[in-house]
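Researcher: I need the complex structure. Ligand is iron/sulfur cluster. Inputs:
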Amino acid sequence: MFCNQCEQTAKGTGCTKIGVCGKQPEVAALQDLLIYALQGLSQVAVQARAKSVSDPETNRFVNEGVFSTLTNVDFDPARFQVLIRDAVARREALKARASVNVDSPAATFVPAATLEDMIAQGEQHGIAEALESHEDLRSLKQILIYGLKGVAAYADHAAILGREDESVYEFVQRALAKSLDQLGLEELIGLCMECGQVNLKAMELLDGGNTGTYGHPVPTEVPLGPKKGKAILVSGHDLKDLAMLLEQTAGKGINIYTHGEMLPCHGYPELKKHAHFHGHYGTAWQNQQKEFAEFPGAILMTTNCIQKPVESYKGNIFTTGLVGWPGVAHVGKDFSQVIAKALEMPGFTAEEDKGSVLTGFARNAVLGVADKVIAAVKGGDIRHFFLVAGCDGAKPGRNYYTEFVEKVPGDCVVLTLACGKFRFFDKKLGDIGGIPRLLDVGQCNDAYSAIQIAVALAGAFGCGVNDLPLSMVLSWYEQKAVAILLTLLSLGIKGIRLGPSLPAFITPNVLNVLVENFDIKPITTPDEDLKAILG
Ligand code: SF4
Ligand code: SF3
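Model: Output:
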């Protein structure tokens, strides 16, 4: 196997024997084969679109397939086998429907009859040498394909809430199809920038879906301690799954807790109205084996990031949607099995006070007090804003982000989003004239919200985003972060600090291009970086 798509890749170069994430070589091969099948399907879809044929179901299928290969989503070989066969069946159906004839190897590939032979096929279509032999061009193709995984994830979440846009599907398929061609440096850089723009659109669609369905988040205090009683823990990113679970558990004496990226859900009016939507449990994804083992109720995983469940809770955890782990019960949108498990389990035996955190500072809430914020900046009360955002992960170097936030001077405000916030989310940083110094904007996809806040502030100050007293200190782990980084670069945002380590798939030459054009830099130490930013 070879996989280098995430930040924890083995030795900082690539997982070759087994994934550090727990991905088995056969799953890696099947994921590669699925991408290949989707590239072939996309070649056909591009030709079909040229004849004004676009199939809504196929469009959604392509994104679901791509999303399934994102880190920590699906580890189940059986599910990939089905997706690969489905991709080929849809490809042939689309050829017939649009009367197109594409005879490339990817568009005519036939999956082997057995799982074993499919795995062997997958090994021929890896993301490494087979994709492109020139290392800088391969680097750019990997950036593009990994970025597409992030776009597909956000677009899929948005589609679940009824928000779709043909331009997103068109790009994902065009880029997948093109990734099989011989492309030059300029063309690949252009596609990566376009991927960033399309990701902005996907995040906008998702923002519209989330706020349009559940209202604009409002500042909300979320308890970190449990309530006495039966419990269900919901992890992942999917608001609709949570909403359905809240409805299905109403009046059943079960309290619902968020985990990881679901924390910001507490701020949405249509979710927080449920009296049994209690609080938040645990921290980021990489601590789940310990934290889930101690949770006395059922656990529902709605998207990434699932980790290998340990025996002690394997019978209590359920997956839904695109998430999968072999041997873990996969449920649809009827959560009766999850509810039955929660009722069977002891639940929390006593109430415990573990303090609270604030969430709900998405664009509407922050821009609602924009006058106050602008006055505080003009009056010198707020010196600088830091967006300390991105993924969490297991590496010790990620303490940088905790220390950085601790060391941010008292006249500066920290905006945060995504699961990296768990490095500092419960710090009491106080406020500046009533404006909290730590503002949780939301999930990773709420990078859209943070961008809107930055654009509005730039408008108010009559300057560009790069001229604002704002610095971005980002952490990455999986491919949604790649997509967000491409979005920020495509918006011309400069001087981003990135850590904890740079992606293995970026070659020195590609890094040079990024440094020259965007002044992107690796994090160093909190003291040095703060000094460089604030002087
Ligand atoms: Fe390795 Fe990350 Fe790929 Fe998992 S997703 S196999 S940890 S590079
Ligand atoms: Fe975290 Fe997986 Fe990236 Fe949504 S939950 S940010 S790592």
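Model: Summary of the prediction. The domain at 10-213 is CATH 1.20.1270.20 (Substrate Binding Domain Of Dnak; Chain:A; Domain 2).
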